């Protein structure tokens, strides 16, 4: 059994839940035992800047015993940096070291920090092609492994006939700015279609300015409610501005909708574009008119919603399921543990 010490950003960090924790049990079937070491106080800084120096010192002190435990394992797996935007204890981890990245972290830590982190590790596992392309500049051993979806838990639900229809969005309140960008399109659709409701599943209620309040529904996010809240939607939406940060997004919101059998309308940004190329699962929408038209087409055609939703569900089950991703990750970790580092790659990293 391959022993892996994994270092994550905290118990409630999404990447820890979806890119590691849900894979721990199935990976044992593939000969990999993972022990997670999460940052008790989180690897992301507190909002108040005055608290950050103390937070940083306490977080690193808490991490030191777990770093020592890496010497009892075969592989050290690091999710992003161990302290946000800084390279700190990573060089002290036992090699081989594997970096797992699902965001464009170089935007916040800078090219210099990202380059140093990439050169410290023996391999890098990236959530999409955009991230992989960036890190390939600094490390020859880069692999793409998508974020897994628990398609047994996020599954399609037979819906009872209803006069109403629900357009839904699920995510963190920090991403509300993306929703606000398409508020004019949502306003057009809701005002034209009185039977349509907008459901927002998040940690706090959004503050829309022009949407009819009676047609907006807020569901408090919780691990217990997140699945049923999506299953009861009819259309899933994922708007994204075309920014450098969003180019690194791994389309996870879109994949969760698809796993639940929903057709999607999403911005063709980052990995969203790749997913649309894999199957016919909905519409890519850029400007406000495209968002309006795409939503109206799906609202008007129940059969089309069903067909597109079924296509998406099939894709997720085949290519993004927990078992599929666990098998891929286990294969990579076994290979990294037994194959020596590429000498040419090491030389390149040390001289560039």
Report the radius of gyration as a whole number of Å.
Answer: 21 Å
> Which stretches are poorly predicted, pLDDT < 50 over at least 5 residues?
346-351
| Pattern of helices and strands | EHHEHEEHEHEEHHEEHEHHEHEHHHH
CATH topology call of the largest domain? Rossmann fold
Counted by DSSP, the helix tally is 15
Helix content: 40-55%
In whole angstroms, how far apart are the ends? 36 Å
Number of domains: 2
CATH architecture of the largest domain: 3-Layer(aba) Sandwich
Please report the first level of CATH classification, the CATH class of the largest domain: Alpha Beta
What does this structure look like?
This protein has a six-stranded parallel β-sheet, with helices on both faces. Strands 9-8-7-10-11-12 form a six-stranded parallel β-sheet, sandwiched between helices. With 352 residues, it is α/β, with parallel strands linked by helices. The chain is globular. Helices cover 43% and strands 17% of the residues. Helix 5 links the parallel strand 5 and strand 6.
């Amino acid at each position: 059994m391959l022993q892996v010490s994994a270092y994550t950003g905290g118990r409630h960090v999404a990447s820890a839940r979806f890119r590691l924790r849900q894979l721990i049990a199935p990976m044992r079937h593939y000969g990999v035992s993972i022990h997670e070491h999460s940052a008790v106080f989180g690897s992301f800084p507190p909002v108040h800047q005055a608290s950050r120096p103390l937070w940083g010192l306490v977080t690193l002190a808490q991490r030191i015993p777990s770093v020592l435990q890496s010497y009892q394992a075969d592989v050290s797996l690091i999710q992003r940096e161990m302290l946000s935007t800084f390279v700190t204890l990573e060089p002290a981890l036992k090699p081989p070291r594997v970096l797992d990245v699902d965001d464009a972290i170089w935007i916040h830590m800078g090219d210099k920090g990202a380059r140093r982190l990439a050169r410290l590790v023996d391999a890098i596992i990236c959530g999409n092609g955009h991230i992989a392309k960036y890190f390939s500049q600094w490390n020859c051993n880069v692999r793409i492994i998508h974020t897994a979806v628990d398609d047994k838990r996020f599954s399609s639900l037979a819906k009872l006939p209803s006069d109403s229809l629900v357009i839904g969005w699920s995510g963190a309140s920090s991403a509300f700015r993306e929703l606000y960008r398409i508020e004019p399109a949502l306003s057009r659709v809701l005002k034209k279609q009185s039977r349509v409701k907008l459901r927002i599943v998040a940690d706090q209620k959004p503050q829309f300015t022009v949407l009819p309040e009676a047609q907006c529904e807020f569901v408090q996010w919780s691990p217990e409610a997140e699945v049923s809240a999506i299953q009861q939607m009819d259309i899933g939406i994922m708007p994204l501005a075309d920014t450098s940060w969003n180019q690194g997004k791994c389309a996870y919101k879109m994949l969760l909708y698809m796993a639940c059998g929903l057709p999607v309308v999403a911005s063709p940004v980052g990995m969203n574009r790749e997913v649309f190329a894999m199957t016919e699962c909905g519409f890519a929408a850029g400007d406000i008119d495209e968002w309006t038209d795409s939503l109206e087409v799906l609202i008007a055609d129940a059969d089309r919603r069903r067909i597109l939703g079924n296509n998406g569900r099939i894709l997720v089950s085949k290519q993004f399921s927990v078992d599929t991703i666990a098998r891929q990750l286990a294969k990579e970790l076994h290979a990294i543990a037994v194959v020596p580092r590429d000498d040419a790659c090491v030389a390149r990293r040390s001289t560039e």
